[in-house]
Design goal:
There is one protein chain. The protein is α/β, with parallel strands linked by helices. Helices cover 49% and strands 14% of the residues. The protein starts with a strand and ends with a helix. The structure holds BIS(adenosine)-5'-pentaphosphate and magnesium ion.
């Protein structure tokens, strides 16, 4: 298998993290979630975390220079294929990514767009729990942990995300539509957009993504 470099794109709660975790394991790729990196920086109380926190709490995008700084550092040390989950989120970020990859003689092989309607998103995010230690994602309705509120993988107590409150979810959806959705055209024009129906069980969606990647010859 060739080295595979992917972006997972979609509205908040579409299942980007859920799928990135599964696909990265199956294909031996590095899972890079800018949201998780920022949440870790907040937890570690770093200067960058302090700056990012106020935007994330409001459901707004963190300024480009903060996210790009994080990512540039990481990409320079990468020696495997990757899944970027939650990056890029604006056209300027996508343009910057193109330049960063070009400088490393890398290409983006596919942009997996997970399509889920708003009503389903609100339902999913209201019931989400995450593991603050290993990043595993659960849902109290659709995929609860085996033991109540405890991570199946590492045994850590699960938490709710700060931005999963109803008014913040609505704001995130608005930000997605205004700032991130234009990326669909950006990548469609480049011929690398892969649209996946995000309604179904997580395993069904993993199968759809795998099939689409194999159809691409990867
Ligand atoms: P980020 O952490 O990326 O959040 P997001 O894009 O809003 O997406 P989510 O993580 O909420 O959803 P997801 O698609 O990963 O879904 P999940 O798998 O968890 O970003 C957070 C914030 O950080 C941003 O608002 C911004 O402030 C900042 N930020 C991050 N990147 C940035 C950037 N590049 N530039 C600027 N700012 C940036 O699934 C959701 C729930 O549904 C879970 O409970 C899951 O168990 C469940 N579920 C998953 N699949 C299914 C299914 N098929 N059926 C039923 N339930 C399912
Ligand atoms: Mg996520």
């Amino acid at each position: 298998m060739t080295q595979l470099n992917l972006v997972f794109l979609g509205p908040p709660g579409a299942g980007k993290g859920t799928q990135a975790q599964k696909i990265s394991k199956k294909f031996g790729l590095r899972w890079i979630s800018t949201g998780d990196m920022l949440r870790q920086a907040i937890k570690d109380k770093t200067e960058l975390g302090k700056q990012a926190e106020k935007y994330m709490k409001r459901g707004e995008l963190v300024p480009d220079e903060i996210v790009l700084g994080l990512l540039e550092q990481l990409l320079s040390t990468l020696n495997t294929g990757f899944i970027l989950d939650g990056f890029p989120r604006t056209v300027p970020q996508a343009e910057k990514l193109d330049r960063m990859l070009e400088a490393k003689s890398l290409t983006l092989d596919g942009v997996v767009f997970i399509d889920v309607p708003d009503e389903e998103i609100i339902k999913r995010l209201s019931a989400r729990r995450i593991c603050p230690n290993c990043g595993a994602v659960y849902n109290m309705i659709y995929n609860p942990p085996k033991k109540d509120e405890i991570c199946d993988i590492c045994g850590t107590p699960l938490v709710k995300r700060d931005d999963d409150r109803p008014e913040t979810i609505k704001k995130r959806l608005k930000v997605y539509r205004n700032q991130t959705a234009p990326l669909l055209d950006y990548y469609k024009t480049k011929g690398i957009l892969i649209k996946i129906d995000g309604i179904g069980t997580p395993d069904q969606i993993t199968e759809r993504i795998e099939k689409a990647l194999l159809d691409m010859g990867k």
